[in-house]
Automatic annotation (TrEMBL):
Name of the protein this chain belongs to: Putative tricarboxylic transport membrane protein
Pfam families listed in its UniProt record: TctA
UniProtKB keywords: Membrane, Transmembrane, Transmembrane helix
Organism: Anaerovirgula multivorans
Transmembrane feature ranges: 12-45, 57-79, 106-129, 141-160, 167-184, 196-217, 257-284, 317-344, 356-380, 392-409, 416-432, 467-489
Limits of the DUF112 domain: 17-440
Length: 505
């Protein structure tokens, strides 16, 4: 109880509350403006939190995450362009409702169920994470190696259309992680005589380059094309409450609960994220609905499914991050970097050694959810106007912030060149349709797998049987093999299906 009171005192301090509100507002902008994603928001503001208290800094990152995930609904409904991948399914019914003159209702439903999805996900995080951590605290090197391998197979096979490209990105990320001093025996690897490479590539510079700088380059390329789409201005003052009746809300409760469960479950799986959960929840909702044929024509059911699930995925993705130190998606991979720059290692010991920080995160997420609800509803006119801000004004500011943030980490010009290098690499990934999530997961999880593999061999006197004989590690290694076989079989079946279709045509 003392830890909870101390955490509440930290969150409800005036300075922290202001930072959380600003974080949510900035997150909504990044989510609403197409091309500025949640990943970019968190990566860009990670250096800003460097000198802050860990509780305050991580609370800001959580606020950005929550705001950006929900903010995508604004452009999805008003422009029929999802601000983030997590709001793709919101376009299906949101914009048709706008065309029918029900734009305020669509926005109101999206905002409310984004809020509810976030609240449910935080409750799930609070209930599941401590219990999982109490089990994970008994894990040793064998178990952590097996979990890392299983996570890497999921990332490489489920986060992209091509399994080969996913594996390539993951292996390349692992290769970059091996630069510098090796774990366990401290051997210097792949520095090519360059002193600055002995420390390896810092996680923060890799994240800023791969996600923020590459997005700047991509957006700059698209900005060459004239975009004459005008944002529909919708006034929320002309409607009562949030634009929908209490009966409509009650009718959508089962749909919301099911979608929240889907979002949490998919969020827990490493490498998938809310970009997939909103599509899956929309499909599940459509199949079980009695009026499934109306989906896509402009009904609130589809918006409820999409917006509840994508925000529910936030808490789900944080469960493996906080209990096992394994990120659930690209944003939580950056959050892992956020923990590390504050000297905190996520994992089961987090709940013992940093219990105040854990409760601070929980309370901050509740506060951020409430701030999101208020800011999105009352600040909608401001956010819609921001959609029309020219990209040539935004891009230079973002680029300068990235450079300043990278230099401020260790005061090295080398880090500035590093973000440029990984920015160009991220852009090349984009051009050749190679996913960047497996790269960053390989960069983070690869060293974890290597370190625990070597420690496991030391514990079992160089015998590989220790990894298989241990029940938990053996189970996860078996699941890893199963996930690879399943993906190979699915890829073969898809190719066979395409061949049959081409033959018929």
């Amino acid at each position: 109880m003392a830890d909870i009171l101390q955490a509440a005192q930290a969150v409800f301090a005036l300075q922290t509350l202001i930072f959380i509100i600003i974080g949510v507002a900035v997150g909504i902008v990044f989510g609403a403006v197409p091309g500025l994603t949640a990943v970019m928001a968190v990566a860009l503001f990670l250096p800003v939190t460097y000198g802050m208290d860990p509780g305050v800094g991580i609370s800001i990152l959580m606020a950005l995450y929550i705001g950006a995930t929900s903010g995508g609904l604004i452009s999805a409904i008003l422009l029929k362009i999802p601000g983030t991948p997590s709001s793709v399914a919101t376009c299906f019914d949101g914009h048709p409702m706008l065309d029918k003159g029900e734009g305020p209702k669509a926005l109101g439903v999206g905002i409310v169920f984004s809020f509810l999805g976030t609240i449910v996900s935080v409750l799930a995080l609070m209930l599941i994470a401590p219990k999982l951590a109490s089990i994970a605290i008994k894990f040793g090197p064998h178990e952590y190696f097996a979990i890392a391998v299983f996570s890497l197979t999921l990332i490489a096979t489920l986060s992209c259309k091509s399994m080969v490209k996913g594996i390539f990105a993951g292996v390349l990320g692992f290769a970059f992680a091996t630069v510098g001093i090796a774990p366990v025996d401290a051997t210097i690897r792949y520095t090519f005589g360059t002193t600055q490479l002995k420390a390896g590539f810092t996680t923060l510079t890799v994240l800023i380059g791969l996600f923020a700088i590459s997005e700047v380059i991509k957006t700059a390329e698209k900005a060459k094309q004239k975009n004459e789409m005008k944002v529909a201005q919708v006034s929320m003052k002309k409607i009562k409450g949030f634009g929908f009746s209490l009966k409509e809300f009650k009718d959508q409760v089962p749909n919301g609960i099911l979608s929240a469960i889907v979002g949490i479950a998919i969020g827990i799986l490493p490498g998938i994220g809310s970009g997939t959960s909103n599509i899956v929840a929309y499909t599940v909702s459509k199949k079980r609905s009695k009026r499934g044929e109306l989906y896509g024509t402009g009904i609130i059911d589809g918006i409820v499914a999409s917006e509840t699930s994508n925000n529910a995925g936030i808490g789900g993705a944080l469960i493996p991050l906080m209990t096992l130190g394994i990120p659930g998606d690209a944003v939580t991979a950056i959050l892992l970097g956020g923990f590390m720059i504050h000297g905190i290692q996520p994992g089961p010991l987090l709940f013992i050694n940093n219990s105040v920080l854990v409760y601070t995160i929980f309370i901050a997420m509740f506060v951020a959810a409430i701030a999101m609800l208020v800011l999105e509803f009352y600040g909608l006119r401001i956010f819609t106007r921001l959609l029309n801000v020219p990209k040539h004004l935004l891009l230079p500011i973002i680029f300068v912030l990235c450079v300043v943030g990278a230099f401020g980490i260790n005061s090295r010009v080398f880090d500035v060149w590093t973000i440029v290098l990984f920015g160009l690499l991220g852009y090349m990934f984009y051009r050749f349709d190679v996913p960047n999530a497996p790269f960053i997961m390989g960069f983070i999880l690869g060293p974890m797998a290597e370190t625990n593999f070597r420690r496991g061999l030391m514990l079992s006197n160089g015998e590989f049987r220790g990894f298989i004989a241990n029940p938990i590690s053996g189970l996860f290694l078996l699941l890893a093999v199963g996930s690879i076989l399943w993906t190979v079989f699915g890829s073969y079946r898809e190719k066979k299906k395409q061949i049959c279709v081409s033959n018929l045509s």
